[in-house]
Amino acid sequence: MLHISLVISISGLLILTFANESLQPPISKIDQINTNLLGKNVHLRGNISGIHEFKGGSMLLILEDSSGKIDVYLPYNVAREIDLVNSTELSIIGSVEVYKGKLEIVIENIDGIRVGK
After folding, report:
1. Degrees to nearest 5, angle at CA 51 with 45 and 52
2. What values do phi and psi take at 69, rounded to 5?
3. pLDDT digits (tens, 9 = 90+) for 59-90
4. With helix as H, strand as E and coil as C, how does 37-50 read?
5. Are 51 and 99 in contact (CB under 8 A)?
6. Which domain holds residue 96?
7. In this structure, what is the dihedral angle of CA atoms 53, 67, 87, 83, given to the nearest 10 degrees?
8. pLDDT value of residue 23
9. Residues 48, 63: contact at Cβ < 8 Å?
10. Do 113 and 82 touch, CB atoms closer than 8 A?
11. Please, how many CA atoms are within 13 Å of residue 80, restricted to the half-sphere of its CB?
């Protein structure tokens, strides 16, 4: 009986791990992003209206949709993996954070950003 319980528990954990990686938050509009979402993942689509590259290799993008604009921070490990040349449209999944009193989205890994539709 103990072995059956252990197998069921491990199977359940594996299923939860797989489901967590494949689930995406619903697409939101930028004007829906607020402090109630701090630390939570959001899914946004929009156009790049500005890019700032930092000396260390990270990037700050300005993402814009029909409802507003928001900063999107790409740490070095993400920025080095992405090619934004001739691209304006992005789909992102990232964490809502505050930097210098301003809301921004932080992309933690390359899976959180898709260039184009």
Report:
1. 135
2. -130, 155
3. 999 999 999 999 999 999 999 988 877 668 89
4. HECCEEEEEEEEEE
5. no
6. 26-115
7. 40
8. 66
9. yes
10. yes
11. 6
Question: Model's pTM, two decimal places?
Answer: 0.78
CA dist., res. 77 & res. 41, Å (int): 19
Please check whether residue 3 lies inside any domain of the structure: no
Instruction: Give the Cα separation of 50 and 60 in Å (integer).
Output: 8
Contacts of 100 (CB under 8 A, 6+ apart): none
In a domain, 20, yes or no: no
Pairing of strands 41-53, 27-28: parallel
Which long-range contacts does 48-53 make (Cβ < 8 Å, 24+ apart)?
Answer: 48/84, 48/87, 48/88, 48/89, 48/90, 51/84, 53/79
Please give the tally of structural domains in the chain: 1
Residues 22-46 pLDDT 10s? 567 899 999 999 999 999 999 999 9
pLDDT of the residue at 31: 96
